[in-house]
Structure formats: structure tokens, C-alpha cells
């Protein structure tokens, strides 16, 4: 952020963060099960927020709701001024049966990037993902980590102000994990808000500014990362961090 | 038995000598069936894809209709078109009866439902795989259709070959609307039927052999056209 001292806005202390992403009482039921059970959260428009919670808590579902891919049964998702449009990297990314380059070109086309600007943007994305060397290879023949990196920069093709990442480093080796974490950090440093789902506690500690803890379709806790890992408040989070089985 | 071998010998002789009558028939067959195939694909690929990606009232009925139409008996299609194009028919002014155009129309009617139904199935499978990803990237419906059609191209090539096979092999419809007129509407299958009934086994056999070679060649071409690295690249 490059805010100079003289333009600091005067904010009344009680005013809500108009830049935030606000989730108001999001509910989603399916065949009598409340998969999302009144999710309430106000997520700041900058930094990296991690969304943590046990398997089946509803993390991926919540990301889909934020992306408007799934309509909640009730509740509203409101994007503050800080967000123009979100992009999502799925837990299991699906690439087209084309080259790496063609996948990115396709994404740029969908993102309405003018033809003249595409090749420049494409080269940037390839560099960001460290895939320049593999640009002509079939995307589906890339290794898992390479596919993840490609999926992340593909999501960046639309220049999103909010990037949702669903376990981007699950099943990757340490160096591939590090490559992706670097990419996440750089993206965040470039001003993109990131919401990251992860089961990797060390990763959450390394990257997160704040933690949203989702349990049984509800936000059980939303605190700063340091606080969360040192002294979780909710029983559910305590149990999760202690490795207890949460059902 | 001697007749049998003689017939084969004469058949190969006809093919080897490049008999103009034979070549004329083969070329007309190719022209009719390939034209029908291209038009059926132009109609069938987008309609099949649209049926897969869109949701509107009556969609299921349309899908069922095209599925059922895959099994249309060619003679019934031929008869229906005959009634439409004949002197007393509503489309008599077009003067299409006993022309190659009428045969092309008959084959389009026969193979378009096949192209539509197979395409719809292929695209529906790909939509299940790519749909959410494409929606997350804000693809419009036409963009989705184009992306999935391109994604499906190896399967669509096979679909086209199935359609071509059906077009080439078909006798009943083109016989009725084409009339099997020498040098005008006589194609391979109708000639084979005619020559066989006349006892001209050599000509019938020669045409049959060419028909087989074309079928084998088409399949080989598709195999060769498919990306060699498919197993590796398109997991
Ligand atoms: N399309 C769907 N139809 C029915 N149930 C679904 C659907 N999608 C998700 N669910 C259910 O909703 C619950 C939450 O799923 P979700 O994928 O959001 O979990 P998650 O928190 O991402 O878990 P994980 O850590 O394993 O990825 C699960 O019990 C799942 O079975
Ligand atoms: Mg998940």
C-alpha cells in the first residue's frame, strides 16, 4: 500500500469497513442437511485470510457460494468497494486438453483482455508460474505442482481483486509447496486479496494475517492468525488444533 | 464356384482398368455423402452442444426426439421425402426429385440426429468436468459451447466417421428419392443392389470392394489425424 501521510482518511471508529467482503447469515441446506448453517463474516479487503476447518466443514462450498457458482438457500454475499471480481482456484483444478500457453490464452480471452495485450500478459503469467520453459507442453501432462501453478496464474488472468485458493498445495512436495507459497505472497503483495483454504497448519502460520475457522457450516472463530494458533477461543478450534476428531 | 472366382477376377480387372462408369459412381457417392456429412456436422455439432449446456422447457423432449430419430428407417425417410418432392407434393416446385440434392437431403435427415445425439453426450460429459471452472471464469454460453466443442474434437471426429459410415452404407432413402438413374443419381450402394439383381456380379463386387476400402481408409485417416501423443497429453 502506498498511501502518503496527507491523504489518510478520517474514519469514524464505528463505521463498518466498506471495502470488506461481508457474508451475512449464509445458509445452504441439501436433502435436510445444513451444509452451511448461518455463516457470518466480515473479511478485510487486504492481506491473506485462511479458511480452516475439518473435512466436510463446508470450506469448498463456501468458496463456491462466494463465487456465485452455488446459490445459498438464504443469506447474502456483499462485495465491498475493494473487490471488483473474484477468481477461484478449485481444490481439483481442471485444465483444458491444450498446451499451457493455450490454456492461459483461453483464460485471457474469457477475461476480455484485448488481443493486442494478450501475448504480453501471457508471458508475465508464465514467468509468475515459472512455466515459461513448459509453455508448449500439454497442460494435462504437467506434474501436479506445475498444474497447480498454472491454475493459479490462470485465475490471475482476469486480474481479480480477490483470489480464492482451495488447498492449492495439498499433495505437493516441499519445494513445489514453497513455489506456490511464493506465488501467493507475490500475488498478495501486488494488492490481491487472498482467501486460502488449507489443512497445512505451518502454511497457515507462514501466510495468514487472519484465520476464519469453519466448523459444521458455521464460523466458530475469526481472529488474527497469531492469536488463533496461540490461544484459540472456541472449543471446536481447540479440538481441531489438538488433533481431536471433530464431528 | 468357378463363377465366384471369375466374378472376383473381373471385379479387380474393373477396378484396375479405372472403368469410367465405376469411377463416376464412386465420385458421385463421395460427393453426396461428404456434402451430407459436412452439412450434418455444421447443423449437428452446435445443436448437440447447445442441448448439452442449456436448460429450457422442452429440452428433454428434444433430446428424446433426436435419440429416437437415430434409428429412423431409411426407407421411411425416403418415402416421406418422396411424397414431399413428388409432382403432387408440397415441395414439388423445387424439382428436387431424382436429383443428387434430394439424396443429400435424405442423408442429412438420416445422419444429423446421430451427430446431434452423440455430440450432446460427449459435450455433456465434458460439461460435468469443465462446467464450474468455465463458469468461474465467467464464460458466456456461446463461449462455453465453443470451448467444449474444441475440447471434444477427437470424439467429434469419431462421431463424424460414424455419420459418414451411415451415409455411405445407406441404400433405401437414396434409392427412393434419387431413383438410381444412370450417370445422374446412381451411387455405390444403389448400384450394388441393381447389379446384383441383374446378375452383374463383377460390377457389384468391384463397387463393394471400393466401399470397403473407403470405410477402412476413413478410419485409418481418423486414427492418423488424432494427436499421436494423445495417451500422454490428454489424460
Ligand atoms: N454438490 C453437493 N451435493 C451434496 N452435498 C454436497 C455437495 N457439495 C458438498 N456437499 C457436502 O457438503 C459438505 C461440505 O463439503 P465441502 O466440500 O465444502 O467440505 P470441505 O470443508 O471443503 O472439506 P475438505 O477439507 O475435505 O475439502 C460435505 O459433507 C459434502 O458432502
Ligand atoms: Mg474442500
> Which structural class do the helices and strands of chain A define?
alpha/beta
CATH architecture label name of the domain at 19-98 and 160-241 in chain A: 3-Layer(aba) Sandwich
How many domains of chain B? The number is: 1
- Shape annotation of chain A: globular
- Give the overall average pLDDT of chain A: 89
State the oligomer. heterodimer
Termini Cα gap of chain A: 41 Å
Proportion in β-strands of chain B:
under 5%
CATH fold topology of the domain at 19-98 and 160-241 in chain A: Rossmann fold
Radius of gyration of chain B: 21 Å
Description:
The complex is a heterodimer of chains A (247) and B (235). Chain A is of the alpha/beta class. Chain A has a domain at 19-98 and 160-241: 3-Layer(aba) Sandwich (Rossmann fold), CATH 3.40.50.300. Chain A has eight helices and nine strands. Chain A has helices spanning 59-66, 100-110, 115-128, 144-156, 174-189, 201-207, 225-230, 235-241, and strands spanning 21-30, 33-43, 48-52, 74-79, 86-89, 162-166, 193-197, 210-215, 218-224. Chain A has a six-stranded mixed sheet with strand order 5-6-7-3-8-9, with helices on both faces. In chain A, a hairpin with a 2-residue loop joins strand 8 (210-215) and strand 9 (218-224). Chain B is an all-alpha fold. Chain B has a single domain (25-233), classed as MetI-like (MetI-like fold, Orthogonal Bundle), CATH 1.10.3720. Chain B has helices at residues 2-17, 20-53, 59-69, 74-85, 100-136, 141-151, 153-169, 172-178, 188-198, 201-225, 230-233. Residues 229-235 of chain B have low confidence and may be disordered. The complex binds adenosine-5'-triphosphate and magnesium ion.
Amino acid at each position: 500500500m502506498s498511501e502518503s501521510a496527507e491523504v489518510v482518511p478520517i474514519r469514524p471508529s464505528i463505521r463498518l469497513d466498506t471495502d470488506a467482503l461481508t457474508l451475512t447469515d449464509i445458509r445452504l441446506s441439501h436433502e435436510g442437511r445444513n451444509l452451511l448453517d448461518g455463516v457470518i463474516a466480515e473479511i478485510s479487503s487486504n492481506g491473506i485470510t485462511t479458511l480452516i476447518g475439518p473435512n466436510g466443514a463446508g470450506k469448498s462450498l463456501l468458496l463456491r457460494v462466494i463465487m456465485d457458482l452455488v446459490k445459498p438457500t438464504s443469506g447474502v454475499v456483499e462485495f465491498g468497494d475493494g473487490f471488483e471480481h473474484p477468481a477461484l482456484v478449485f481444490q481439483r483444478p481442471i485444465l483444458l486438453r491444450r498446451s499451457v500457453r493455450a490454456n492461459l490464452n483461453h483464460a485471457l480471452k474469457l477475461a476480455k483482455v484485448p488481443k493486442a495485450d494478450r501475448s504480453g500478459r501471457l508471458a508475465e503469467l508464465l514467468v509468475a508460474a515459472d512455466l515459461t520453459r513448459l509453455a508448449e507442453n500439454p497442460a494435462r501432462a504437467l506434474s501436479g505442482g506445475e498444474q497447480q501453478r498454472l491454475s493459479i496464474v490462470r485465475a490471475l488472468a482476469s486480474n481479480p481483486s480477490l483470489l480464492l485458493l482451495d488447498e492449492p498445495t495439498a499433495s505437493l512436495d516441499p519445494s513445489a509447496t514453497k513455489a506456490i507459497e511464493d506465488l501467493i505472497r507475490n500475488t498478495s503483495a501486488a494488492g490481491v486479496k487472498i482467501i486460502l483454504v488449507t489443512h497445512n497448519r505451518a502454511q497457515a502460520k507462514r501466510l495468514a494475517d487472519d484465520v476464519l475457522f469453519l466448523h459444521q457450516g458455521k464460523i466458530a472463530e475469526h481472529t488474527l492468525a497469531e492469536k488463533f494458533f496461540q490461544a484459540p477461543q472456541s472449543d471446536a478450534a481447540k479440538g481441531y488444533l489438538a488433533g481431536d476428531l471433530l464431528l | 464356384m468357378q463363377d465366384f472366382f471369375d466374378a472376383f477376377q473381373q471385379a479387380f480387372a474393373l477396378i484396375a482398368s479405372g472403368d469410367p462408369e465405376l469411377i463416376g459412381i464412386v465420385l458421385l457417392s463421395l460427393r453426396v455423402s461428404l456434402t451430407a456429412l459436412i452439412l450434418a456436422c455444421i447443423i449437428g455439432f452446435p445443436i448437440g452442444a447447445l442441448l448439452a449446456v442449456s436448460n429450457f422447457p422442452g429440452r428433454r423432449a428434444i433430446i428424446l426426439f433426436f435419440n429416437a430419430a437415430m434409428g429412423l428407417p431409411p426407407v421411411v425417410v425416403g418415402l416421406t421425402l418422396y411424397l414431399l418432392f413428388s409432382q403432387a407434393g408440397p415441395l414439388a416446385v423445387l424439382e428436387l426429385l431424382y436429383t443428387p440434392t434430394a439424396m443429400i437431403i435424405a442423408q442429412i435427415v438420416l445422419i444429423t440426429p446421430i451427430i446431434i445425439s452423440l455430440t450432446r453426450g460427449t459435450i455433456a460429459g465434458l460439461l460435468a468436468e469443465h462446467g464450474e471452472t468455465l463458469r468461474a471464469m465467467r464464460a458466456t454460453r456461446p463461449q462455453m459451447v465453443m470451448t467444449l466443442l474444441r475440447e471434444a474434437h477427437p470424439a467429434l471426429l469419431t462421431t463424424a466417421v460414424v455419420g459418414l459410415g451411415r451415409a455411405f452404407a445407406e441404400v433405401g432413402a437414396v434409392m427412393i428419392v434419387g431413383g438410381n438413374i444412370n450417370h445422374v443419381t446412381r451411387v455405390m450402394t444403389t448400384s450394388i443392389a441393381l447389379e446384383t439383381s441383374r446378375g452383374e456380379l463383377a460390377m457389384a463386387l468391384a463397387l463393394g470392394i471400393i466401399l470397403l476400402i473407403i470405410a477402412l481408409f476413413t478410419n485409418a485417416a481418423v486414427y492418423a489425424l488424432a494427436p499421436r501423443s494423445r495417451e500422454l497429453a490428454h489424460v
